[in-house]
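User: Structure please.
Assistant: Input sequence and predicted structure:
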Amino acid sequence: MDVESPEGGAALVERAPSQAAVSTGAARWMTRLAAVAALLFFLATAFRSGWTRVETDFPNYYTAAVCVRKGLPLRNFYDWTWFQRQMNFAGVEQQLGGYSAHTPLTELPMIPLAGFPFQEAKRIWLAVNLGLLGGTVWLLTRLTQFRVEQLTLLMFLGFGSLYSNFLYGQYYVCLLFLLTLALYCLERGKPAACGFLCGVAFALKL
């Protein structure tokens, strides 16, 4: 009958944690590679489509901001025929739009962009949205026990929504960032800042 020596048992005990560490490290690298692949796919599809194509939603925000810079009356924004004419004047041609679904303050973040040509303004907005998306992921790493690559993969599970947001130049990534930042402030014991950010998000779009 073979009896295992104490030295051999100790070696097995030491080897097991080592193998677990290697397995954990490999899993982390696989998660990071998957997150990078998902990001590259997103940039090559959703982000690129929004960068090169003109679709609805952003033209509405942009036209309203141009009208604000011109000092045109707000009540006319909700007149579909008038607003459509203003879209043409703003350089958005062959695109139907309207402002009736938006709050009077929705165009506020677009006012600085209204000084740029339409397509350039949209590209700036998309770049800002990409930064806000990254900021949201970072805030969530501070609020949860998930790592950046894990949250990135979770985020891209909602690829359809992200695709629409970037293709149409929508507002929802901006709102997501504001609400996540509000939660971060609340968790850090800053209820006033949380309330302010929630109020801004509601006033802009909700």
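The mean pLDDT is 88.
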